[in-house]
Hints:
binds adenosine monophosphate; alpha+beta; 3 helices; HIT family, subunit A
Amino acid sequence: MSETIFHKIKRREIPSEIVYEDDHVFAFRDIAPQAPVHVLFVPKQDFATLNDVPFDSPEIVGRLATAAAAYAKKEGFAERGYRIVMNCNEDAGQTVFQIHLHVLAGAPLGHFGA
Ligand code: AMP
């Protein structure tokens, strides 16, 4: 897949607030937050969209979700709640073609859809 802005964030080549990192995942604040907390969790292994993740590698996406839950507990919003979202391709509005999980929290969130 092609280079994205998230690769530059991972390499600390452009400014970003990285809030979480482990061997498999890194996470940083979204530049255009849609909620008081809006963090993106990205695997260190590259996939452009969810469609590109091999069926027998569910840990790629699973690690994003468990890292998000660990972060929610650490930051104290796990009990109040949060939303995780992954956009895939055009109809979902994906704009950065490197898979990432949005974590939204910090206020009651409206429901969404078409
Ligand atoms: P998506 O539309 O699901 O592909 O989400 C891409 C997200 O990346 C959007 O919410 C953008 O606001 C966010 N974004 C784009 N550029 C940056 C950046 N330099 N730093 C942090 N977040 C970014």
